[in-house]
Amino acid sequence: MIADNIQKIKKNLPKEVTLVAVSKTKSVNAILEAYDAGQLDFGENKVQELSQKALELPKNIRWHMIGHLQRNKVKYIAPFVHLIHGVDSARLLNEINKQAVRNNRIIDVLIQIHIAEESSKFGFSFQEAETLLTQNESYQGVRIAGLMGMATFTNDENQIQKEFNALADFYATWKVKQSFSVLSMGMSNDFALAVNAGSTMVRIGSLIFGSRN
Ligand SMILES: *Cc1c(COP(=O)(O)O)cnc(C)c1O
Questions:
Q1: Residue 39: which domain range?
Q2: Distance set, CA 83 to CA 56, 60, 88, 181 (Å)
Q3: Domain containing 85 — which CATH number?
Q4: Atom number of ligand 1 nearest to Cα 187
């Protein structure tokens, strides 16, 4: 079932778009089923759950931290995390840098941009992100690999497309200068619109593993 779902999604994704299987709340066995189908990128949104699963599961899995990350928890994932999607403050970026240096690593991160109408979602405004990127501070332990965003939770496809397009435009203006390679946008309900706008990485949970409790 899980393998079939992955297959179906991949058929609808351009080859160059990376599929991150969002496995939050799902069991180690469910993840193994996806892994056995060839899936290596998995996303989690809680540090403790991510760390526990990383301990129990094969070492070649690439773990993506996709949720809001508290600074005091960065140290738990810094030794192994593959990509941190939700960098939403300069202070968090500094902490990731510090922990990366401590672990002798360069950690790839994405700057999260607030593109949705909802006020509850985390992220920089375009203007704040521009300020951060213009400072052009060099981090020894962090590589800003690109941007991440979540569209408004709505049935209005025009609204969603507009938000993804805005993020894609902003990404395009910084891509060369910053050597960006990742634009993370698109979930189960809106990934087709995200890919349409130029997403290079989609984060899909319920369409692979079924709905969460
Ligand atoms: C849960 C989550 C997803 C996946 O959501 P689905 O609708 O199940 O595909 C993607 N991105 C983030 C940041 C999430 O928290």
A1: 2-209
A2: 19, 14, 14, 12
A3: 3.20.20.10
A4: 9
Rounded to whole angstroms, the Cα distance separating 49 from 141 reads 24
**Ligand 1 binding residues, C-beta < 6 A:** 22, 24, 45, 66-67, 150, 187-189, 203-207
- Per residue in 74-131, pLDDT (tens digit) is 999 999 999 999 999 999 999 999 999 999 999 999 999 999 998 766 899 999 999 9
CA of residue 207 to ligand 1 center, whole Å: 10
Ligand 1 centroid to Cα of residue 109, in Å, is 17
22-68 pLDDT per residue, tens: 999 999 999 999 999 999 999 999 999 999 999 999 999 999 999 99
203 Cα–ligand 1 center, Å: 6
State how many domains the chain has.
Answer: 1
Question: pTM higher than 0.90, yes or no?
Answer: yes
